[in-house]
Each structure stands twice: as C-alpha cells, then as structure tokens.
Amino acid sequence: MTITVDIEIEDEAWTTAEADAEALVWRAAQAVLDAHEDIEGQGIVILLTDDDSVQALNRDFRKKDYATNVLSFPSPPNPEGQIGDIALAYGVCAREAAEQGKPLAHHLQHLVAHGVLHLLGYDHERDDEAEAMEALEREILAGLDVPDPYASDEEGR
C-alpha cells in the first residue's frame, strides 16, 4: 500500500537554511515507511513550522507551554486512513543542531524518522522501548547516510 507523505512548509526559514528541506523530509519519512511494509493507512502530514506554532500545539494538546523540536499526533482510526501529523519547530531544531555540532539536514531527518516512528506506535517512555526505538532510528538513518544521532550521548553515559 502506498502511503502519501504531504509536506507543508509554513516557515520559510526551513528552506532558507536547507534548500532541499522538503526532499530531506520526504526521504526520511519514506525510509521509515519502507521499513514497515505492513502499515495500514493512507497518509501522513508533516508541517515544517516555527517555534511559536509548535509551542501553541504543545500547550493546547500536551499542556506544556514551550516549543519543542518535534510533535507527533497519531490519528485515531478513521475512514480516510490518515496515520497522523507531525510538526517540527525550525528555531528549536536549528539551535539543537548547532549545539550538537551536526548539520541541520541530519538533525531534520532524524527528527522526521523519530516522529514517524511515534505515529506507528513506537515510544521511548521506558528504557527498553527507548533502546528499541533508537536502534530502529539508527538503522533507518544509516540507510540515509546520516551518522548515529545517539553516538555522543552514549559516550557520555
């Protein structure tokens, strides 16, 4: 089954910083979907937006009044087969990439993969869940030539 990935760019800062942001997002989302051929559903919407918009979503839906890098909103079962929506905040993502010394393109692809995995039911609340999700992220990102995003985290443990 083909799953549509619709990408909406609300904040042009994304394409100013990464001219091929839309293609990067699509490739990362598609890599996750390709690794899960048994998915039931029709579509995912990914919104590249600003910090204020993500803060409003986080406040309204999670009761947390701050911007975060990525939010995932799995859809309840629906006749359209929508899997869910993802929103990414440019300012937070760009700041994190700079602080972590990695290209924004790599961080963007990591967060898209992370968000899509959440839509598919993966979580990281417990250590065993986090390890499984991170392992899958590493595998997917390696296929996109994105270095292990958790490598520096583990060196510090």
Report on this structure:
There is one protein chain. The chain is an alpha/beta fold and 157 residues long. The protein has one domain: Metalloproteases ("zincins"), catalytic domain (Collagenase (Catalytic Domain), 3-Layer(aba) Sandwich), CATH 3.40.390.30. It has seven helices and four strands. It has a four-stranded mixed sheet with strand order 1-2-4-3, with helices on both faces. α2 packs across α5, α4 packs across α5 and α5 crosses α6. The longest helix is centred in the last third of the chain and has 16 residues. Single strand-specific metallo-endoribonuclease involved in late-stage 70S ribosome quality control and in maturation of the 3' terminus of the 16S rRNA.
Radius of gyration: 15 Å
- How would you describe the shape? globular
Going by CATH, the homologous superfamily would be: Metalloproteases ("zincins"), catalytic domain
- Give the fraction of residues assigned to helices: 40-55%
What's the total number of strands? 4
Kindly report the CATH topology: Collagenase (Catalytic Domain)
- What is the CATH C-level name? Alpha Beta
**Can you tell me the CATH architecture?**
3-Layer(aba) Sandwich
Q: Give the helices and strands as they follow along the chain.
A: EHHEHEEHHHH
For the record, the count of structural domains works out to 1
Task: Report the biggest beta sheet as strand number plus sense, adding barrel if it closes.
Answer: 4 strands, mixed
- Helix and strand composition category: alpha/beta
**Overall pLDDT level:** 92
Strand order of the largest sheet: 1-2-4-3
Distance between the termini: 41 Å
Low-pLDDT segments? none
Number of separate helices: 7
Strand content: 15-25%
